[in-house]
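Lay summary

Proteins are chains of building blocks that fold into shapes. Our project writes down both the chain and a compact code for its shape. Here are two examples, one after the other.
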Amino acid sequence: MADEAQIIDGKSIARAIRGEVADSVAALVAKGHRPPGLAVVLVGDDPASAAYVRSKGRACEEAGIYSVQETLLPTTTQQELLGVIDRLNCDLRIHGILVQLPLPKHINEQSIVEAISPAKDVDGFHPLNVGRLAGGMECFVPCTPLGVRELLIRSGIQTQGARAVVIGRSNIVGLPMAQLLMGRGEGGDATVTVCHSRTADLSELTRQADILIAAIGRAGFVTGDMIKPGATVIDVGINRVDDAEAEKGYRLVGDVDFDSARQVAGAITPVPGGVGPMTIAMLLRNTLESAQTWARADVRG
């Protein structure tokens, strides 16, 4: 049996990035500038969203980032939410605004995303930032694909000249991931194929990939026989599957069947503990970079 794949430890890499962010925050404050500020807006009482928001708050505190949470009722109107965003856009203590998705069905998500100032759009979802990424210009990049690129770079995975396959075409992960991999410079210069649920002969394409990124939202979708021997496999998926033996009655798995994939891949991310921790680390770094931009403009309030 071939050696099992190297496990890419997202927890340890994210911990290092969060330490770097904390050092940079301290240096910014030492120069007399405000600490970076992040506002997270939560509409409703979805338990998973609430838990994720709490984890972001803890991460901010550890890094020295000022954070506020705006918790709104499920019955909040779109106009009321727009009013909160307008207030945060004007708040000089806030350098990043994140509206936790999904929103209640009566609120138009795109309208909310577009209401956030592009200069504070640390999620990278505003059309202006989306367009700048497509054009290869400086911008905020969605945190999950940005985290994947950082995993590749810090794990020494060669992207230049590599053949990459991204499974999934969402605006949040798949498409920006492809753009980052195709971009020039470190973590880029790859030849990229984007696949999705309607792709014909999917396995034939995935078996050609030196780097395979799964972000399709289907538990165990990618199996070992779909992977090129020695390839790097990045699993973005987080899916709940029933497990009577688990304490909570379920367990978290990725879009990749880990047990079969690790027998073939050269390197692989686990779920949990792979891409997930990187998403919050990149959110902190985006918020820091926003604050540094404001500091350069000497906007102190």
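And here is the second example, written the same way.
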Amino acid sequence: MKVGFGIPNNHGVEDPNELVALAVTAERLGYNSVWVREHLFHSTYVAERLGDRPYHDALTVLIAIGTATKTVRLGTSVLVLPWHDPARLGKMIATLDQLSHGRVDFGIGVATTRDEFENLGVEFTTRGKRTDEMLDALQALWTQDTPEHDGTFYRYSGLKFSPKPFQKPYPPILVGGSSPAAHRRVARIGNGWHTLRQTPAQFAEGREKIIALTKKAGRDPSTLHYSITVPMKFTGKPPSALVQDRTALTGTDDDIADTMRAYRDAGLDEIIVSVSTGDLGENNHALRHFMENIWLKL
């Protein structure tokens, strides 16, 4: 199992350069990856958390991180595909993959913030269909010299598209979510499943469903990559939930290590630890404490 760190672009850090510095520290400490989140407006729970503080753009931050680092992988946890145009997003992801020499992990999702869809003029009820078509459109853009796509929402033909991604055929598509639709999306087109706040028991159950669906779709499930983003807090007190029922890394160092082992035993390939605060001191402390006192002793 590998470990990544969630960069708090979604927690109101005033200076985005500080987010880049966190990623540089994560790379130096030995983390495999760094991940950013996406919202475009301060919708519902985002507004409650941030007030007037900023939510920095996911890909802009990731591009800056990519140019400041050399080895750490660059993940999106997750980009909301219905909010984007496939050609524009396809070019941005391909350019980032070229800039970073093939370090992008393309986590995608559909989101549930209805008010945000309304502000963007995107029909909320079509978000799943748009996401499925967007994935097909992106595949065409990334693999065809003159891409052809004729769908319900997106159409293009007759023009060349570049650059192509550094990774071939394209960056790993990691499908977010835990719904049956998300599981089917992994099985149909995904290179992996990237979920949030699932217990080890829930993760194991979802993984088995995805394996069965992938086989049914005629694809090899052994090639899939499984990752999860979970919040982490050093409380020093034993968590109340049994290890298989925990949705966060909390408690003592030993408690957190036990939860990590439960995820590993459930078949997880990578865990992304995230500190639910924009406090840079807490983030820097968590980066070092986790790596030195938990991860390296597993």
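What can we say about the second shape? The chain has ten helices and twelve strands.
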